[in-house]
Amino acid sequence: MARRQPGTSRSTVTIDTSGPLFEGKAHEIIQHWLKPIKEEIAAEGHFIIGMMDMNKSGRGTGHFQSQLTVKTIEHDNLSVFDPVIYGPWLETGHRRGQATAFKGYHAFRKARLKMNRSAKRLAAEKMPELLHKLNGPG
Fold this sequence. Notes:
By secondary structure, the protein is mainly alpha-helical.
């Protein structure tokens, strides 16, 4: 055995590699954690777009807002969806690629910006819960 130099010491480190993170359960735990966050953010987007004043002409009926839905798309992601045929025109003010005098409401763009801020805040608030679950009991 090699001789120790004066002023040095020997340490032993033990690392426990057990728990959900090392047992292949992390993906399932993260997806379960994400689900209510996605639902809350989608509900917020639905609310933001639904409450937006879309009556510049004085002829607004509320039909567009009444048709908004939240639907599941690939990988369990959620989307606020408008099934009305004139939805793209309300958003941009363009009709078949041609600009009109109406500039659009940009409801989805505005909602997306607010939702991005909310998503970051909500995930940060819920992060300790995820870390606790990934660390497992103990």
